[in-house]
Inverse folding.
C-alpha cells in the first residue's frame, strides 16, 4: 500500500524543504515487503510495529550514511516526499525478495504484539470446536533501499499491494509509557498495508527529531516501540501536542491532509511546548 506524507516540518528538522521543492525533486519510494503466508498470517499490530522498526533499521544502517552504498538513494528519497509502498509476498516470492539487498526485521509474534513474553497458557487461543488455535507467527518485513518511483526491481514490481488485511486475535496490551508509541488516528479506517506505511512515517519523523544520543539509545533497545490506536478523547490533544505528526498526501485511501500518526517518543515529550 502506497503512502506519501505531508509532515509538519518543524524548524529544527534536518529536512526543511518547502513542499513545492519536494514535489519538484525526483521522487523515490522506500519498498517494504511483508510476508503473508496463507497458512499463517501475522497479527496486524505485530506487522505495523515490525514495519516501523524496519524503517528505523534502514535509516540507522551504516550503508545509508556518508559514502555508504545506499546513502545517495536514501538522501534523494528524503529530499523528496518520504513515500513508502508496502507489498505482500509468500513462498517463492518471499524467497526471491530476500535475494535483493535489504534488511529483514522479525516481529514479536503471538496474539498481542509489543507485550512481554507470554506464558504457554496464553500463547494460543482456544476454539470450542477444534481446541487450541496456534498463535500468529512473528511478522516478517523486509525493507529495501529507496528506488525511483517508476524503477522498481522486477522481483518486487510484480508483488501485490492489495490483500494486506490482517487482524489481531485479541486486543494488544497497553503500551509502556516509557517506550515510544506511534499513535494511529482513531478517526480513519486504513488497510494494514496503509497503516504499516503510516507507522513507518511516524517512526521516521521521530528519528529525525532525536539527538544522536537518543537515536543511539533507541537503536540499542532494538528500536522498541508500540503502535496503538489512540483513544478518541485523547486524539485532538495529541495532534496539537508539538510531537511529530504525519499528514497524508491523500493519494490512496484517505483524504489529503489527514492526520494519521502522532509519534510519541519519550525524549520528544519535553518539546511539546514548541508547537
Amino acid at each position: 500500500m502506497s503512502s506519501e506524507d505531508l509532515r509538519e516540518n518543524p524548524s529544527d528538522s534536518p529536512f526543511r524543504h518547502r513542499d513545492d521543492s519536494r514535489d519538484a525533486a525526483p521522487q523515490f519510494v522506500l519498498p517494504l515487503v511483508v510476508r503473508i503466508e496463507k497458512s499463517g498470517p501475522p497479527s496486524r499490530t505485530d506487522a505495523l510495529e515490525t514495519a516501523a522498526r524496519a524503517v528505523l533499521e534502514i535509516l540507522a544502517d551504516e550503508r545509508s550514511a556518508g559514502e555508504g552504498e545506499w546513502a545517495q538513494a536514501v538522501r534523494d528519497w528524503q529530499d523528496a516526499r518520504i513515500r513508502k509502498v508496502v507489498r505482500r509476498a509468500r513462498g517463492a516470492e518471499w524467497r526471491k525478495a530476500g535475494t535483493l539487498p535489504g534488511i529483514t526485521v522479525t516481529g514479536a509474534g503471538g496474539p498481542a504484539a509489543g507485550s512481554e513474553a507470554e506464558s504457554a497458557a496464553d500463547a494460543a487461543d482456544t476454539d470450542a470446536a477444534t481446541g487450541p488455535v496456534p498463535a500468529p507467527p512473528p511478522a516478517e518485513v523486509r525493507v529495501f533501499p529507496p528506488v525511483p518511483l517508476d524503477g522498481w526491481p522486477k522481483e518486487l514490481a510484480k508483488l501485490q499491494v492489495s490483500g494486506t488485511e490482517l487482524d489481531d486475535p485479541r486486543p494488544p496490551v497497553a503500551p509502556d509509557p516509557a517506550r515510544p508509541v506511534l499513535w494511529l488516528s482513531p478517526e480513519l479506517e486504513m488497510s494494514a498495508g496503509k497503516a504499516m506505511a503510516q507507522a513507518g512515517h511516524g517512526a521516521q519523523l521521530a528519528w529525525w527529531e532525536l539527538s544522536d544520543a537518543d537515536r543511539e539509545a533507541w537503536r540499542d533497545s532494538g528500536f522498541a516501540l508500540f503502535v496503538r490506536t489512540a483513544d478518541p478523547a485523547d486524539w485532538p490533544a495529541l495532534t496539537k501536542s508539538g510531537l511529530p505528526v504525519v499528514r497524508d498526501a491523500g493519494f490512496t485511501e484517505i483524504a489529503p491532509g489527514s492526520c494519521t500518526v502522532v509519534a510519541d517518543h519519550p525524549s520528544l515529550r519535553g518539546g511539546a511546548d514548541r508547537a
